[in-house]
Amino acid sequence: MSFEKVLVYGFAFVFSAIGVGIGYASIAQFDGPDTTQAWLMLLAGCAFAGFGIAVFLLGSAGFEKSKRADALRALHAREPWMWREDWAAGKSASNAGSKAWFLWGFAILWNLISTPLVLFLPDEISNGNYPALLGFLFPLVGIGLLIAAARTTIQRLKFGESEFVLDRMPGVLGGDVAGTIVLPQGVAGAGSFTVRLANMHVRRVKSGKNTSTEETMLWQTEQVVTHATPAMTGVPQRLSVRFRTPFDAHPTDESDANSKFVWKLTAEADVPGVDFSAEFEIPVFKTGNSSPQVTEEAIRKEEVIAHPPAIVSPEATGVRIVHGAAGGTEFIITANGASAGSWGAAVVFVIFIGITGLIISFSGPGLFALIFGAVGVLVAGLGLFGVYGESRIVVEDGHVSVRNILFGKMWGKRVPCASVERIGVRGEGRKGKHGNCSVTLTLAGGKSLSPLQSVSALQTAEWLAEEVRKAIVPWRGS
User: Based on the domain organization, do 195 and 81 belong to the same domain?
Assistant: First the structure.
């Protein structure tokens, strides 16, 4: 047995044994007049044992999956798009099943741990310990997790396990990603489907003892499918899709678990009740069919020419183009449609400052007060910039500058136009809906430069990126 298996199974055994021990000890406590402690011990035992069992089951499944993946890697050493069982079969399965199981497991474990708080928090609060009110946040989060798990399960039962069958394996960078989304039970009542293809960078970020996952959108495109096969409840339905992908995007790369590049295809539709949503990870690589001329900028240029944005006032788009003082061009991005985000920032600010006040009032740890206060001030600053801030992309004299301005204070960076390797659009955005998109200048060496103020409409961001590209052409050469 490998060291990894010994570690995982040993960890699972220890937690399960502790859970069984605590549960057994709780039995004797039920004989007394007050069974509160007995229930607390029983819940704690269930939490420990449940966690141990979950680690054992997930570990076993992971080891078996890794064994099969190793066999595929050995068989297709130079074909990484064959390293997953579903990819090797020419398709990609949706993650609905695994997502539902994960949510249920996490929700149950969270609630087993947080439920005991409900039993003793009222006594703490009645004794004047008002900061204990914050403890109710944990059961509330548990309720939210249960709702999310139930919703995902209903969605899975209603629509089944969808899959994306590729016309050609793998998807081609500088070429096409094409195939058919198969909906085994159909999506009755859907007039159209929004299908989006996105290239994402998924990183594990460590901060002290904590680890979090960050997802950065590197490139995205979408289309609305209205010519799906007729939908009837319980009858399979098929959606045919085709996307052009840029040659200069990142291919699928999962060699580093802490820094992965993935391609995700999502399909959504608004229907009565629980809406339809499916997500697929698909393999996209450079192959002999890749064309270096099909770049992100070339695709966007064709898209803007074919579908120019409607003539809308600068007040509506939040973007103005003016002549610069030195004879160049300035692209001014002002706050637009940011009220929702500002209200959210205000709520977060009030919560964090309120927590800071409680900690100070009850002589809590000064470090905690400092951390909560700093986060509150940071969120307030971002919220203020979202409402009152302004960003400018200035192209003049062979250089491009990105400037951010708030209440007369300006900061930013200036680089030669020749150092800009690519102009792209990053962030979350969907055509026809409010989003959070930003023009990004990728520089030589891989660094990037973006204005802090964002654009709400994806189509506006793509148009702005194309206008910036045209402005720097005289110094960049293309």
Answer: no
Do 20 and 135 have their domain in common?
Answer: yes
CA distances from 84 to 70, 73, 319 (A): 10, 9, 44
pLDDT digit string, tens, across residues 341-376: 566 667 777 777 777 776 776 666 777 778 878 888
What CATH number does residue 415 fall under?
2.30.29
Specify whether the backbone of 269 is left (phi greater than 0), alpha (psi in -120 to 50) or beta: beta
| Whether residue 198 sits in one domain with residue 137 | no
Cα–Cα distance for residue pair 69/63, rounded to 1 Å:
10
The count of other CB atoms within 10 Å of the CB of residue 68 is 13
Classify each residue of 180-198 as buried b or exposed e, where b means 16 or more C-beta atoms within 10 Å of its C-beta: ebbbebbbbebeebbbbbb
User: For residues 395 and 412, is the Cβ–Cβ distance under 8 A?
Assistant: no
**pLDDT exceeds cutoff 70 at 337:** no
Yes or no: say if 252 and 283 are a contact pair by the CB < 8 Å rule: yes
Specify whether 173 is located in the same domain as 283. Answer: yes
Same domain, 134 and 12: yes
Q: What is the pLDDT of residue 207?
A: 67
Q: Which two tokens stand for residue 124?
A: 């703490």
Domains in the chain, number? 4
Give pLDDT tens digits for 60-116: 877 777 777 777 777 777 888 888 888 888 899 887 777 787 888 888 878 877 777
